[in-house]
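sanity check this record:
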Amino acid sequence: MNPLATSSIEALAHVTRRHFLGSGSLGLGGLALSSLLGHSLEGASSAEEPFAPTASHYPARVKNVILLSVSGGPSHLDLFDYKPELVKRDGQDCPASLTDGKPFAFTSGTPKLLGTPQKFAQYGQSGAWVSAAMPNVAAIADELTFIKSLHTDQFNHGPAELLLLTGIPRTAGRPSIGSWVTYGLGSESQDVPGFIVFTSGGSLPSSGKAGWGSGFLPSVYQGVQCRTGGDPVLYLSDPEGMDRSLRRQSLDALNDLNRIHAQQLKQAETATRIAQYEMAFRMQAVVPELMDLSHEPTGLLEDYGAQPGAASFANNCLLARRLVEKGVRFVQLSDWGWDFHGTNPNEDLRDNLVKRCTLMDRPVAALIRDLKNRGLLDETLVIWIGEFGRTPFREGRTAAGPYVGRDHHPFSNTMFMAGGGLKRGYTHGATDELGFNVVENPVHIHDIQATILHLLGLDHTKLTYRFQGRDYRLTDVGGKVVQEVLA
């Protein structure tokens, strides 16, 4: 008997029933992964190129996604969903027929209606209504596809954001949308991960790192969080005293050990570990230059409002363009700080929303223009979305206070998209005259997820992964493609 077979038998002798059941799913998952990627777990190269591009279910309209996740619930009624009747009835009691039996985070009784303090106008040939708080986005209104009938099942930040980003409102280890996309399609870049994440706003989003986790998918598909200051990725640099050649030797030795382990136990995560080591080695040479904005033209930096070396949403938008240009499949920008309840001066909707928009408006418009100028917009999908909307009435705790804000509102919201495969300068859906309920073409969060996958050439009902005895998918048991927004 050869030594490898002997060592395999000895290893199996120490495998308990609990370990077998726990790792069995990983082994099956590894086989499914290897089948998807055209690899075999039998060889040493089992899944060492997990981001190799793979065929979609049908021809894709776009190749890459930039998801702008606006964390905190931006007020659609003060940005995109103009309601003259709500302005007219400002300060009146909200009709009980709208609020009775509805859950709100901080409001009870009879709240007062709140007309927007922002000025609105129509822009472009499409005549899209946009607030004066977003002048740069308003200027590109004809590039945008608005959905004004978005609704969700959740009225608190964490669950609502998890539903948006992972398809389920619980922290149960479900894969994020970026993980599903890279699992299904791979990436055109083999030097950087297929799924990269940036955060801004001074805090993690309400969903935390679960918003870009891989859940039960192989961990190689989780989002890699990058920084705009210091080392772009923590622990990416070699330890002091280790040069590139020595690093290569040590990595080869580790990979030899991991390959033996993979042959013995057929664990998918061992193959993932090999792939991650190799990816990190390549990233050391590529990422520092890729994240360096100092070589971008001065005019372009000014257009974004970006400053090399700074930590800002503007820098993240410019980096997102550089990454999709490099072939990264999915870039997620999470911007925290849009929760305007009005309980203190910093949450006052009148002035502070405008200040917040100033940080967002300019770089978003610049990103879309930049992609278009480079011929990348037709193959990239840009999505601007928050976890829910805001109420058309004042938040309950602020009814008699000096500051103005709105409560969480799951029943209606507005989002916009730009890019390939979409009707540009188009608005889908509508809410009632007060902006409370959707009255035309309702769109659920799962419908948005299905539509994103569809534009990438993926059938959301077929992109599945078997875990603990059943097939899972991003859209759970719901979701339908919003055909009306497609060109």
User: Anything to note?
Assistant: DSSP finds 13 helices and 17 strands in the chain. The chain has a mean pLDDT of 85. The longest strand covers residues 64-71.
